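Minutes, structural biology subgroup

Action item carried over from last meeting: produce the structure token record for Heterodisulfide reductase subunit A-like protein (Bellilinea caldifistulae). EB confirmed the sequence was re-checked against the source entry. Recorded below for completeness.
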Amino acid sequence: MAQKGLLMCVCQGTCPSFQQMNIFEVGNAIRRENLVDYVAIHPQLCSTDGDKFLTTLLTGDMTDKLYIAACDPTMQVKMFRDALEAAGFDKNNIRGVDIRNMNTEQAVAAIKQMVTAE
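Output recorded by EB:
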């Protein structure tokens, strides 16, 4: 059975644009409402180990839709292209939202809007 996942990136946790939010509470809020089947946090998806993580996560057809809350959604697709191709995951099944410079409540609202828009 294919699942929907939420993957959040926090730019190593040191980027000033993520200092106003509690990323763990953001994930818990989405998880508690059962908006997705799983939630994961990665410290830096645009790094080499971020590519490895995405490839591992998306290989095997267990996920059919992946929501990513991080930086600019257009950049996300460009940065993750190689990992998506390596996993055989269609980039059309990725949805992204920019949560930089948001507090916890704003990030939760932005993610909810992205997930429920479909």
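Discussion: The domain at 4-116 is CATH 3.40.50 (Rossmann fold).
Next step: EB to file the record with the rest of the batch.
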